């Protein structure tokens, strides 16, 4: 399966999307507009945004910055609030109403990845200690679901965070004053991505499993690593795997990380 962040290096995937756009242009546009986003991935009301496609799974992430009081336990920090939305628009498997159990688990795992250790230097979001700080609300919306949702959500969030620009803000007389120009980028401590594998028949590892593959496998492993190759987290569901299989997944994840960063960098240069 290929990856996309606004531009798609995989010609097969590009052809599928282009064919859909030509044959059913109204439905193609509707898929995006219903999620308040243009097909090019741009969210004009957001302070940072991105669109990522892995195979036929498409994720749009928009980040909105607001000013709030810092948390009592962390008076010198701002904070990041991610939320993953899996609506019936992306797949009939999801129903209207409160977030599904899958969406809640995905959001929880994403929160863990962001916090331990931290991805963003949250102290740089502080405007005035104990008084005011930036809060980044990240809405991660699935436009089309075809499996491997977590990897796509992580990629979309990291890319959107890298796109964020904040105004210079000061705290005076109980008020926050900000410049109109947005020029301050976020300060990254590390840049993690996740790479998922499905295990078929207890011995075959399938990278980037799609929805059909996920529906029939009995075990899956997700490896999160950063730019140094350090493990950030490992999630596993289903039956057990051997130490050798785990080592293979970690090794392949490190190789895959290099590919992901290269694809995203090319996408950024093209925008």
TrEMBL record:
One of its GO terms (molecular function) is mRNA 3'-UTR AU-rich region binding. It holds the Pfam family RNase_PH. Coiled coil: none annotated. It is found in: Cytoplasm; Nucleus, Nucleolus. Keywords: Cytoplasm, Exosome, Nucleus, RNA-binding, rRNA processing. Belongs to the RNase PH family. This is Ribosomal RNA-processing protein 43. GO terms for cellular component: cytoplasmic exosome (RNase complex); nuclear exosome (RNase complex); nucleolus. GO terms for biological process: exonucleolytic trimming to generate mature 3'-end of 5.8S rRNA from tricistronic rRNA transcript (SSU-rRNA, 5.8S rRNA, LSU-rRNA); nuclear mRNA surveillance; nuclear polyadenylation-dependent rRNA catabolic process; rRNA catabolic process; TRAMP-dependent tRNA surveillance pathway; U1 snRNA 3'-end processing; U4 snRNA 3'-end processing; U5 snRNA 3'-end processing. Residues 41-167, 192-255 form the Exoribonuclease phosphorolytic domain. Its main location: cytoplasm. It comes from Funneliformis geosporum.
């Amino acid at each position: 399966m290929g990856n996309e962040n606004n531009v798609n290096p995989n010609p097969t995937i590009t052809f599928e999307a282009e064919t859909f756009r030509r044959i059913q242009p109204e439905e193609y546009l509707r898929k995006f507009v219903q999620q308040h986003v243009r097909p090019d991935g741009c969210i004009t009301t957001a302070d940072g945004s991105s669109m990522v496609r892995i195979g036929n799974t498409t994720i749009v992430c928009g980040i909105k910055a607001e000013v709030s009081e810092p948390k009592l336990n962390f008076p010198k920090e701002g904070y990041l609030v991610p939320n993953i939305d899996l609506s019936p628009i992306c797949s009939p498997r999801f129903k209207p109403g409160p977030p599904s159990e899958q969406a809640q688990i995905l959001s929880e795992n994403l929160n863990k990845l962001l916090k331990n250790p931290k991805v963003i230097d949250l102290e740089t979001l502080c405007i005035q200690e104990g008084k005011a700080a930036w809060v980044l609300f990240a809405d991660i919306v699935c436009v089309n679901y075809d499996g491997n949702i977590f990897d796509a959500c992580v990629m979309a969030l990291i890319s959107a965070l890298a796109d964020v620009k904040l105004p210079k803000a000061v705290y005076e007389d109980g008020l926050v004053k900000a410049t109109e120009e947005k020029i301050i980028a976020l300060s990254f401590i590390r840049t993690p991505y996740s790479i998922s594998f499905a295990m078929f028949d207890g011995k075959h590892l399938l990278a980037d499993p799609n929805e059909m593959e996920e529906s029939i496998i009995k075990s899956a492993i997700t490896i999160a690593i950063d730019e140094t190759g350090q493990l950030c987290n490992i999630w596993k569901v289903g039956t057990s795997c051997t130490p050798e299989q785990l080592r293979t997944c970690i090794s392949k994840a490190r190789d895959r990380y290099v590919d992901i960063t290269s694809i995203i960098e090319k996408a950024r240069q093209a925008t």
